[in-house]
Write a structure and sequence with these properties.
Blueprint (H helix, E strand, L loop, with lengths): L14 H5 L7 E2 L17 E6 L7 E6 L6 E6 L4 E5 L4 E4 L14 E7 L2 E9 L11 E5 L7 E4 L17 E3 L7 E4 L5 E4 L7 E2 L14 E7 L2 E6 L9 E4 L6 E2 L11 E8 L4 E7 L10 E7 L4 E4 L7 E2 L5 E2 L2 E7 L7 E6 L8 E4 L7 E2 L5 E2 L23 E3 L7 E4 L4 E4 L4 E4 L9 E5 L8 E5 L3 E5 L19 E7 L2 E9 L6 E4 L7 E2 L6 H4 L1 E6 L6 E5 L9 E4 L7 E3 L8 E3 L7 E5 L4 E5 L7 E2 L11 E5 L7 E5 L3 E5 L6 E4 L4 E8 L9 E7 L4 E6 L7 E2 L14 E3 L7 E4 L5 E6 L1
Parallel strand pairs: 1-52, 29-33
Antiparallel strand pairs: 2-59, 3-4, 4-5, 5-6, 7-8, 8-9, 9-10, 11-12, 12-13, 13-14, 15-16, 16-17, 17-18, 19-20, 20-21, 21-22, 23-24, 25-26, 26-27, 27-28, 30-31, 31-32, 32-33, 34-35, 35-36, 37-38, 38-39, 39-40, 41-42, 42-43, 43-44, 45-46, 46-47, 47-48, 49-50, 50-51, 51-52, 53-54, 54-55, 55-56, ...
Length: about 750
């Protein structure tokens, strides 16, 4: 399942936080301490690409262009929008230009194309509709997403909220290409008469927003009539509306019994038979659905017919209740009465697609004859012998130029078929991973090991292909919470995360194969946090942090996790950092108090060293420079960068951008005596990726305005074997890696 990332707030001015540092006893200010270094001119040209995994996130919508063969678009809940090129069989990302301050716009609530103008594309952006998130925006393009014009909205959208698989909520009016409709969650129906440049409320739309946060769930054209689904109905009133003239709206007459208590999820119109098909569920999804149905409306006569393939609520072979809703639906533009519909949230019997060729009188389950090939993205086996057909299936599409080309989205990928039997991921170029940890080993086959949301840990033996081993197994984790290697013994790697059969494991072959910890503290099950191993791999320190933020003491093991003992003097919830040269030393930064703690006895005890450092924000990171004992760097959101060369006894301010969000090291430049430093940081002008080759005296920006990827503050690390190569974690656009051109 796709993780719901925590809110990422925009960077604020740091003057107040900086003022708090004026009286810090242990903070030594050097001659350049007050300088806020701007990046040097003549920044090097970099080429940025994804380290290939393939998908890994929730594909919430897919739309084939009705008038252009081979052209399609996809939207995701947190990873932007993409354009499909059938000639190259690849997706092209369209929203990587959105930067740090616009992180909330990486979620795509809806997309729309204009059948009469093939080059026009519209996106409705906004990841969260909560009060702490920014407002949504509309992007409109005249060149299929190559360039954009933006309109900021005064309302919030919710591409990663409940109901994100419904829709589409954006529509070009079938009578007038200049008119667009936008369904919102809390602000009713909006209308634009200037192709999305300005918006106003559709005053005659009769539904009143409620507290569910669903509002308008779908917009679809049926001939010249526009239909709108409503997710805030009270269980007795209408939840499907229509307008025939674009001016007045009315409830659709005769809505089927039982649907008033459900949410209309998606709809599709068969222009040959003039029938509108609608899927319903008892919750917006993608979770929480246990009942649903499918109905069709003969738009000429007004007659409704139920065409539900299988009614939820039966019993599976093992005695479980077969509960589920209905989600995606698509009609075949070439064959009258041919429709594909998906179940959703069907965990007992596993979700499927049903297909009919006679308008819903008879249905065939495509799962029953499906043959899968996931060799291109092996993680889709999830540690089992074969992949599931899917889950969270709410995006379904049929190619209007090829009746046997059907695609459907899941919580992890997009599957496609060309013969209705053989299925494979149709996902090249689309990367939506939420990345948590990255390490680049100094030796071994893999230059990169990643810890990710939902898909655990991956061993990247190649950057241009999905890891051949898939997810790390023994045990399988959902979301990784910790990943570390022994600096002087890099074949030894440890990982932690959320798993059903243990929450920690170690590897003695560089991360290729794993063995579970023989035991774990009781906290491991409900609060697995970060982990560290000392330089020679003889000691483990595992920290526990509950998902609600509650912090617990660290635990220590000297036998690969067979036994554990609590470390009472370790600051609760802090991330442990191993000294890369001295196996007896560990460090921990207490973000609550701004205190650096150190251990010189292999992690048995910790004592406070420097105090009065920046505190009060989770965006504080302690990093040890490779190959050096006691060389520590403190990256802070509000106060920039600090360095200690005495094991944390004192820190001095380093030159650099005024905010530093994450920091890592890579191979030194030719002739340089110190590793290259990589940083995601902010100047007054921009938040960007920077590199320093001279021990943080000067910095150069190495990304550009076309490659920003929203929120990038989790982790960054350079390659210790390839100068200039850097790996960057994103929250929804996978692992980006850059190299000098």
């Amino acid at each position: 399942m796709h993780a719901s990332p925590l809110s990422r707030r925009s960077v604020l001015a740091g003057t107040a936080a900086a003022a708090a540092l004026t009286a810090v006893p242990a903070l030594q200010r050097t001659a350049h301490a007050a300088e806020q270094a701007e990046p040097a001119a003549g920044a090097p040209a970099y080429r940025w690409r994804n380290a290939v995994i393939g998908g890994t996130g929730f594909i919430t919508g897919v739309l084939f262009h009705p008038a252009v063969k081979g052209l399609a678009y996809a939207r995701t809940d947190i990873g932007g929008a993409y354009r499909w090129d059938d000639r190259t069989a690849r997706w092209t990302p369209l929203t990587d230009h959105l930067g740090w301050d616009d992180w909330n716009l990486l979620g795509v609530e809806a997309l729309a194309v204009d059948p009469a103008h093939p080059d026009r594309l519209y996106l409705a952006l906004g990841t969260y509709a909560q009060s702490w998130a920014g407002n949504g925006a509309i992007l409109r393009s005249e060149d299929r997403g190559a360039t954009w014009t933006r309109t900021d909205l005064t309302v919030k959208l919710g591409a990663n909220d409940d109901g994100r698989g419904a829709g589409e909520r954006l529509l070009v009016d079938p009578r007038d290409s200049d008119t667009l409709w936008l369904g919102t969650r809390h602000d009713g129906l909006l209308k634009s008469t200037d192709r999305g440049a300005t918006w106003a409320a559709a005053r005659t739309f009769p539904a009143t927003p409620g507290a569910t946060g669903q509002g308008v769930t779908l917009l679809v054209a049926a001939g010249r009539t526009v239909y709108a689904g409503w997710g805030d109905a009270d269980g007795t009133s209408a939840n499907l509306f229509r307008t025939a003239d674009g001016a007045t709206w009315e409830p659709v007459p005769g809505q089927p019994a039982g649907t008033a208590a459900k949410v209309p999820i998606r709809a599709a119109y068969d222009r040959h038979t003039r029938e509108l098909y609608v899927t319903y569920a008892d919750a917006p999804g993608p979770n929480g659905q246990s009942d649903g149905s499918v109905h069709k409306l003969a738009t000429v006569t007004g007659q409704w017919t139920e065409v539900t393939p299988v009614k939820p609520g039966g019993t599976t072979s093992d005695g479980s209740t077969d509960s589920f809703g209905y989600g995606g639906i698509a009609v075949d533009a070439r064959r009258p009465g041919t429709v594909v519909v998906s179940t959703n949230n069907r965990w007992a019997a596993v979700d499927t697609l049903y297909r009919t060729t006679d308008g819903g009188r008879r249905w065939t389950s495509l799962k029953d004859t499906a043959v899968f090939d996931v060799s291109e993205t092996p993680y889709l086996r999830w540690g089992e012998d074969r992949p599931k057909f899917g889950w969270w299936i709410q995006a379904v599409a049929v190619d209007p130029y090829d009746s046997r080309h059907v695609v459907y989205g899941t919580g992890a990928t997009l599957y496609g078929t060309r013969d209705l039997r053989h299925w494979a991921p149709q996902i090249r170029g689309l990367e939506e991973t939420s990345v948590r940890q990255l390490i680049s080993p100094p030796t071994g086959q893999a230059h990169l090991i990643s810890g990710c949301g939902d898909i655990g840990v991956l061993y990247h033996e190649r950057l241009t292909a999905s890891p051949s081993r898939g997810m790390a197994t023994n045990p399988v984790f959902g979301t990784a919470t910790g990943l570390a290697l022994a600096a002087a013994r890099p074949s030894y790697v440890v990982r932690t995360g959320w798993g059903d059969h243990g929450n920690g494991a170690y590897s003695e072959d560089g991360g290729r194969t794993w063995a579970p910890f023989a035991a774990q503290p009781a906290l491991g099950k409900d609060a697995p946090g970060p982990i560290a191993t000392n330089a020679d791999g003889s000691v483990l320190l595992w920290v526990f942090v509950h998902w609600d933020g509650t912090k617990y003491p660290a635990h220590r093991s000297t036998d690969n996790g067979a036994t554990w003992s609590e470390v009472p003097s370790f600051p609760k919830g802090a991330t442990p950092v191993a000294d890369p040269a001295d196996p007896m030393r560990f460090y921990a930064y207490d973000t609550d108090t701004g205190t650096l703690f150190a251990s010189t006895d292999g992690g048995r005890t910790f004592t406070a060293r420097a105090t009065g450092l920046p505190s009060g924000d989770s965006q504080l990171e302690l990093v040890a420079a490779p190959g050096r004992s006691g060389d520590l760097w403190l990256s802070t959101k509000w106060n920039g960068l600090y360095r200690s060369t005495d094991g944390g006894a004192s820190f001095s301010k380093a030159a650099g951008p005024w905010a530093s969000y994450t920091l890592g090291f890579g191979k030194a430049a030719d002739g340089a005596a110190y590793p290259a430093i990589y940083m995601v940081g902010a100047t007054e002008a921009v938040t960007a990726v920077y590199r320093s080759d001279d021990e943080a005296r000067t910095w150069v920006r190495i990304n550009d305005d076309a490659h920003q990827w929203g929120w990038t503050g989790e982790t960054v690390v350079g390659d210790p074997r390839v100068y200039g190569r850097v790996y960057l974690a994103t929250n929804g656009r996978g692992i980006q890696y850059g190299e000098p051109v």
